[in-house]
Automatic annotation (TrEMBL):
Protein name, UniProt field: IS1 family transposase
Top-level taxon: Bacteria
Length: 86
């Protein structure tokens, strides 16, 4: 099953392609819509960024269960539920 990566800059989810990896082996992506590159790391690490919130809500509205979202984002269950209840 293919899960779209959402651009953290313009939130486009149809023009993001793989763009190699970093030295630490983190997958990088490039958004063809805005031309910027980023790591999924940005989406999933750190303190409940806007990107994480957006990702959780986007996945949820796409029909993914909280458990599936947890596996995909590495976020804690309680974090996910908090975002979903917003
Ligand atoms: Zn973009």
């Amino acid at each position: 099953m293919n899960k779209n990566i959402i651009c953290i800059f313009c939130e486009d989810e149809t023009n993001v392609t793989k763009f190699g990896t970093t030295k630490t082996n983190i997958q990088r992506y490039r958004c063809k819509a805005c031309g910027k590159s980023f790591q999924t790391d940005y989406l999933y690490r750190g303190k409940e960024s806007l990107a994480l919130s957006y990702t959780i809500q986007k996945l949820s509205s796409s029909g993914y269960s909280p458990e599936e979202i947890r596996k995909m984002t590495d976020a804690r269950q309680e974090t996910i539920f908090r975002h979903l209840n917003n």
